[in-house]
Amino acid sequence: MTSSSIQSRSQAREEAERGMADTGDERADPAAGDETVAPVPTDTLAGNAAEQDEPTTTGDADKTAYAPLAQWAIRAGGRPQPAPGSGELQTPADPWPEPIQGLVPPLGQPPFEAAELLRLAVPEAVPPKPRRRLGAILAAVAVALLMGAAGVLVALWPEKDAGPVAAPTGAPTEKVATKPAETTAPPATPAGPKPRETPLSSNFDVDPICAGEAYWPMQPKRTGRAPHPVLVYGDQGNGDRLPFTMFKTWFLKGKAKEAVWSPQQDPAKIQMVACVDRVSAGAKLRTCTYKAPAEPGTGTMYRASYRLHVYETATGRRVLDTRLAGTVKTCPYALSVPTDKKLYMEVSEEDLVAALGKLVEG
């Protein structure tokens, strides 16, 4: 305690003693002598202050924070506490703070329960916003843009057979006659042999007519009286397709026979081509060995059968189609042995003349 407070307390005691002497208080009795009033112990003051902390129901006395100090002043001989309701009571300079809104019930209402108070004190949890929402929106916008771009490309892409464009709604429309699409079919290829533009120039160039592919309109037709010159051409058993020599038929028979059967006759006078084609092979017959002037080598000869079909050179018309067996047992003439080392029996000249005789000389 400071010296100023002790001095103020002493002055208060003196004023109280003088007041008691004037009013005839027991403390002014001269028999009591000059007994001085002992200072109030600190413990007593603290106890009184503690007692004043307890709340009372005396109206305005509870609204001031200075009630303990006022009671102490009365005991010390100071001015008494103003009466309740007087205008001397003043509102403290530091009033109690306002209660938290929502935690105190309205005036005249019962206090909140503990659970309800906890609900009011703790705000409700706000559900977190999904983080992927923005990403999903951006992805959807990107897909929409891509689809729109694709639609624009499809719309702008030129179409070969695009139909009429529809007019907008409300606009006058004009009827346009649509023409069905014309399909251009490739020209049909005529079946059968085709004519050649130049005459037959060589007796070694008649393979197209044997294959049924061509004919020569400028050649003489097979009409009139016999004989009708023929060229025998085809497989001779050694793998080569050449004109047959027909040596026995025309060489010793004079010029008339030579002009009908010879492989060296004038090509421009040939009326028919007799084609010889091997169609099957049979059993092994013998071994053929070739020496000079042919290229040396050895091959195996087999039995075979042939197709003989005859065509008119001027029209490509087939006039004969038959089958002959190979009967020549001697090894066929060859300048070299075939790569597969296989040789075949030839059709004999006699069998050819027998099959063609009526067409040529009949």
From TrEMBL:
Task: Give the Basic and acidic residues compositional bias ranges.
Answer: 11-29
Record field: compositional bias (Low complexity): 165-186
Q: Look up the domain of life of the source.
A: Bacteria
Sorted alphabetically, which keywords does the UniProt record give? Membrane, Transmembrane, Transmembrane helix
Q: Where is the composition biased (Polar residues)?
A: 1-10
- Sequence intervals crossing the membrane: 134-157
Disordered: annotated span: 1-99, 165-203
Q: What is this protein called?
A: Serine/threonine protein kinase
